[in-house]
Amino acid sequence: MARHEASKAPRPMAVRTPEARVDEAAGLARAIDLDIVAVETVMLSQIKPATYIGGGKVEELAAIVKEHDVEIVIVDCSLSPVQQRNLEKAFAAKVIDRTGLILEIFGRRARTREGALQVELAHLAYQKSRLVRSWTHLERQRGGFGFLGGPGETQIETDRRLIQERIIRIERDLEGVKKTRGLHRAKRQDVPYPVVALVGYTNAGKSTLFNRLTRADVLAKDMLFATLDPTLRAVALPHGEKIMLSDTVGFISDLPTMLVTAFRATLEEVIEADLILHVRDVAHEDTEAQSADVENVLHDLGIDRNGGHFVEVWNKIDLIDEARAQALITMASRRPADERPFIVSAVTGQGVDALLAGIEERMSRDHVRMALSLDLSHHHEIGWIYDHTQIIERTNGKDGAVDFILRIGPDKLDRLLRRFPQARRIDQERAARKRRPSPRPLAS
């Protein structure tokens, strides 16, 4: 697997518009089936230690909460336990901040045991500072983490000892899960297929692209955090060689630090990937800011976008007008070949063939071109060639022989030569012909 060195500095953050931040917060709320009855944007000159926002604004919002009979108020920032408690008293309603909302979404989305454990670990770290609130999810079977309450729930006041004991048990369980994942990864390395990981901002279209490339049926909805648990599928490249494609959880701005840490094991497929495809929603007004958020999280994980294994995929080209689409195509064409993004629509399939060819080209830079002739009766050997090499050209001769021009990775070259000693390295032959001096003309 490729080793990645962290880049020297994270990418500067792009400025988001207030409207875009409100839209994203509303999308997060809708992701757990909340109905939004009112939205307010508050401009702050300074943060109040007691309530985050000023007293006059608190009274104004309290009136709106009462008028609309609001049960839950979502504040799109990180609140201290004191600020959260004071706002709840002022609003007479539940208050959750951005971190709590994201944890609630993750709690409902986790499907695998590892995903559930990772989310619970992050939730416990968050909950330790909020012991004044109720912690209920250990006695409930439904998803989520109890920030929103629910019918028939038992409210249990817990203390640090109970939380810490649970954290220790989860960390122990996660070690076992990580060992199992390591065994699975070792088996894949025995094949071995290179790993290509999809990363991107939440709702950028990663799962739709994953389904398009793999013909799988992973949950793909116009919904934030539709995918939480990692998914792996084999994909055949244009000339037959296979890769393992990994779909991962989407990133988001102001992702809680505890979640980045907790999900490090889940993101191991990204950390160890041979190639990373950064899927961007170029139809979104905040695409640059979203891109910066993703790259900064990757930087925190020790992944350098300048390491030659990072490719941008500009998705949702079908959602923008022709003039802007042409501008993006022109912009992409002006970038150096190694940094040129692929422009696609995961929904319509536009550009996907070029993307697969581009993946193959990047995965084959150190490959060797070989020539090989086999008898058709050696069908088992022919099958091995199709499974382990890229078939560039196949010619069936009249004498029953099959001539192959193929490309193979350096890690498999010895295996090929042991099986087929008659194989010839074309690149070396071409290089020798180039070095050979031209015959001199005879003197008259």
Walk me through this protein's architecture:
There is one protein chain. By secondary structure, the protein is α/β, with parallel strands linked by helices. The protein is 41% helix and 15% strand. It folds into three domains: 176 residues, 3-Layer(aba) Sandwich (Rossmann fold), CATH 3.40.50; 171 residues, Rossmann fold (3-Layer(aba) Sandwich); 67 residues, Alpha-Beta Plaits (2-Layer Sandwich). The strands form three sheets. The chain has a six-stranded mixed β-sheet, sandwiched between helices. Strands 10-11-9-12 form a four-stranded antiparallel β-sheet. α4 packs antiparallel against α5 and α5 packs antiparallel against α6. The N and C termini lie far apart (61 Å).
The strand line-up of the biggest sheet is 4-5-3-6-7-8
Number of domains: 3
CATH class of the largest domain, please? Alpha Beta
Looking at the structure, what is the overall shape?
Answer: elongated
State the total count of DSSP E strands. Answer: 12
What is the N-to-C order of secondary-structure elements (H for helix, E for strand)?
Answer: HHEHEHHHEHEEHHEHEHEHEHEEHEH
The CATH architecture of the largest domain can be given as: 3-Layer(aba) Sandwich
What share of residues is helical?
Answer: 40-55%
Strand content: 5-15%
Q: Mind telling me the C-alpha Rg?
A: 27 Å
